[in-house]
């Protein structure tokens, strides 16, 4: 028996099709996921119209980066929330890194208003069909909103707030500003945040100098920073897979570009900790600025550190265990090198104590200023005859280091040979200013009154820091003008615009000695040692410590050596 086919009228067929489509759409619309995403879309529209300008990076703490005058990184501090987060403007980020990040994270970044409707629709269909999301729908703006406002986006309410915040950001900030903020907050494994920190730690270079392979390797980390963080002692399998996925998305032949199997990151296993005493003093006066360019010349710093190490090794049999050196350009007063101790990490010699800042007896190094004041006050000229003979000043009976007396001696020779008695004799006649008043005028603040030191002051009777001696000796090279030391290149401001500031240099320039007196003092030192002022060591019995000031051209070096018990 044949089955009879009853034809359906065409109009009725159309009605049936409409009914099926209507029923399907009704099911889709009634689906919770679709209604939720529709609600998100409506909320985003109202957010675009009504919400105020949100903060972008206000309140975010960044690491402080201290660099030498040539850009060499000396120290990176932790941020307030214990992250390594180095501020890097978009203009100083490798174009390859920017391109790789956009290709991998958000290839429609330049065209969407903070939320990608197509990506959200895809997520909605995935939820409807598979009850899970097979591909993320977050844009770079949405990721920035999550990072910036610490959002929990695994539920509908969190996702709703993320979209609202994204629309806020897009309305009030440019695409470049948003991308710049994202690249400075994106996670790159462990406590590393931002491309500036990642490039320094993983590759020991600034973000501007990243190669294309390095940029690709870093661009895939933020999506899964825990699994994909680079390790120098692992095979980096997770990031290798992610990097292969990057090439698939970008439609680039990975064999022609780069393979993780042939790649080893030059990770910095330890944080930069160079020129520790110098950097510590810079940070104390940095006012919290993110990026600090200093006057230090790291090549000179490293050379002096090697010389100090060699000097200590060759003089350890003389009980010399520690030393401090300060190198200054007297024309600009730039500190080019500062070695505070022979070994910062050696507790036996109190290595963390900065020997250039510790007050200690200056010995004979104050004698030139006694002669300069005597020249200024008209008491002597360089060829005046002074008496190097036994002399009593009340109950004070000064002696020379060699316990001998030379009799009549020219002033220039008495200074060059560091005779004690002539210096004390001149100091006893100084007035307005005395040596004590002169030191106070030069911002060398002595804790006791003048009567406490008496005439022992020219022979090291008071404690003065090496940095104070540097400023005083530099005044001789600057025609008597006393200037503060410079450690920060205040004219080279980098970092976030709101954190830029001009540093007020401590102290001020002032005329300490009149020009003719300073020049006369240089003449009095004599031609053989005019350019190497090493004739004024501070000495103690049994060679316990010594201080030497040396000049060559524009640079002056100041060295102090001591036993470990001489802080």
Features:
Penicillin binding protein transpeptidase fold; 567 residues; single chain; 5-stranded antiparallel β-sheet; Beta-lactamase; 3 domains
List the helices and strands and how they pair.
Elements (H helix, E strand, L loop, with lengths): L9 H21 L1 H19 L14 E3 L5 E4 L7 E2 L9 H11 L11 H14 L9 H10 L6 H17 L2 H11 L6 E2 L1 H9 L8 H8 L5 H4 L8 H14 L3 H4 L18 H9 L6 E3 L4 H18 L6 E8 L4 E6 L27 H10 L8 E4 L18 E4 H6 L3 H10 L5 H7 L8 H4 L12 H12 L3 E2 L27 E2 L3 H10 L13 E2 L5 E8 L2 E8 L5
Helix pairs in contact: 2-4, 2-6, 3-9, 5-6, 5-7, 15-17, 15-21
Radius of gyration, in angstroms, nearest whole number: 36 Å
- How are the strands of the largest sheet arranged? 7-6-14-13-12
Gross morphology is: elongated
Report the oligomer: single chain
Strand content: 5-15%
Shape-level CATH architecture of the largest domain: Orthogonal Bundle
User: What is the count of structural domains?
Assistant: 3
Q: Quickly give the structural class.
A: alpha+beta
- Low-confidence segments: 500-506, 526-543
CATH homologous superfamily placement of the largest domain: Biosynthetic peptidoglycan transglycosylase-like
Q: The biggest beta sheet, please?
A: 5 strands, antiparallel
The tally of strands reads 14
Distance between the termini: 117 Å
The CATH class of the largest domain is Mainly Alpha
Helical run tally: 21
Q: Level of helix content?
A: 40-55%
Quick check: average pLDDT?
79
